[in-house]
Amino acid sequence: MNRTVPTPAWPTDPMKPPPHHLRHRTAIAPTMVAEMQGLYGPYTFSELLLQRIWARREFDDTTARTADGREVRILAPGKWNRLGGPDFLDARLQLNGRELAGDVELHLHAGDWAAHAHAQDPAYANVVLHAVLFPADEHFTLGTDGREIPMLTLLPLLHRGLEEYAEDEAVESLSRRPLARVPAELAELALPELRELLAAHARQRWEQKVQHARQRIARLGWENACHHTALEILGYRFNRVPMLTAATRFPVAAWRQGAGVAESAWAAQPDGWRTQGVRPLNHPRLRLRQYAAWAGAQPDWPTRLRKLAAAWPTTPAEGTITVAQWRRTNKFPEIRDQLADGICGGTVGGSRFDTLVCDGFLPLLAAETGADLGGWWQAWFPGDLPEAVLAALRILGVFSTPGQPACHGPAQGLLAWLLVTPVTVNAPARRRA
Question: I need a labelling partner for 212 at 20 to 30 A (CA). Which of 6, 98, 167, 175 fits?
Fold first, then answer.
């Protein structure tokens, strides 16, 4: 089933705010939600999500300037305040080299400050920075007694696009969903119907990933987009943010100069790394050393990746053969070895390598070259996916025969289906045809 991808109504320019009719709607005051047009329709971006991004420091402040042109560095984001008053208390920042301490208030739009009458509220008297998502015409925010509060626009500083943040937030929410009921909810479908449903959702997810890769390449260029993506994936979920910060502070050329850069990157964020609850193999210091070894073994790996993909065989039409046949026809073992050794220098293996291929290499290559690599992505090995998702697909019979082994596409299709489908209770099951 082919689907025409609609042209997004917004954002055509990520540096501009959305049209007025899409700017925001009030949910339960003072929680604000921006609704914007994504690849497959509108998506929401909440003020709460913006607060999470600030708390995680998931933005690059190395080139940050306030709206009136002053350099600003965030030394400490402050304590997240979930009660009344400013969003973050006791933050520390540098403004043109001068250190300030105080509170930070975040909004999607600069006008929300006045709409919420913060200037008249003494609880906001100690605000030293007003951080907003979308650019504004104002150069500062008027606080108590007419005091001028510096304003920082976060949109151009974000590591990723808004839709990508919103999607990740939704995927994280799946951890609270009872996946054990998934087989019962889908078991009423005959297996061919189920496969088509998952394939349709997988195609949408693939196109979204390519769109995100395209935006990253447009913002960073091919080589840096590869560099940022590789470190982000090596950081996994727990250390993705400090890995992206390391990618920004230590450009790809620095990693070619020796293993010392890994220790420098580790030392540069003493409070940024998360190690508690992280498996030894995923320890961020080890992953940094791994990437340094990778860059040392294959210093021009982004260029090599693009050239390698250009020689890949033409894929058969989707759905005409089994996954096992697809892998044999397209020389999967050979291609996998080429990527593991010729691109990664033999430094990355296991399920993390397959995640690197599916979430990194293939979307980036499709975005850069225009090649249709969706079939490769669908048939590739699952990577670091929740075991509950793979188990559900085995129970449903999607991964049940030698010809249909576990692969990435159906698992991503199930994730996409979960994101748009409400949970039903005691869903009836009927026998498959």
Answer: 175
